[in-house]
Specification:
Length: 237
Amino acid sequence: MVTGCPMLSSSLHRPLGELLCDATEQILWPLASGRSRGKLHCRVGHGQATYHRYDPRQGLHQITYGVRMVEAKQQAESAAAWLSTREITRRRYFGGTVSPLNLLAHTCCHEFAHLLQQQDGKRYHGSVHNGHFYQILDNLHAQGQGNRVQGFLAEQAQRRGLPLSDQPLRLPDPTSARAQWRVGDKVFFGEGQSHRVGHILRVNRKTCTVACPALRGELRYRVPLSLLRREEAALTA
């Protein structure tokens, strides 16, 4: 049995994303604004992509929160694949409790840690989630910023009538999730332009190695178990 909050109407995901923008701008951004003359713009994107980007020409930090990321973090099956879930459990943020509320609060801290990492000049190509990044992220939580963001989101969601559960999610057992896949199975993952179809080369502990045809040979991807779908399912979706 998986517990969490009921799947929200898509019309409610965007307002929750806008709350993440408000929390980032009102609670976290003042921690950085005194360190430089940079500007911050937060926005809600249409897909899953959630990221920090910096434009040095304008001195502009942009943080995008994907509306489908907000949706994915409401349910245990889809939340299990996200790095934020692993960070909460492994680094014991919020006491290690994974809930929709904690996941979204931590997502704000995660993206803001990238902003501070950029300001410190410690974000490098191929080395984004490095030791300096996690030092910043640990400090944000140790200083209570994660709890401040969590409280802000809970209060504002209640005030605006947006359901945002603080109940722990029962994450799927990796063993049972792994058991349904076999080498050679045809699968697909991703959406839109990132949609890929291929076959399983290797079943790992939490991921599958998937080979997808490319212009020259094939490309290999390590795909979280929760993001895999059988290829025949695409025909009936």
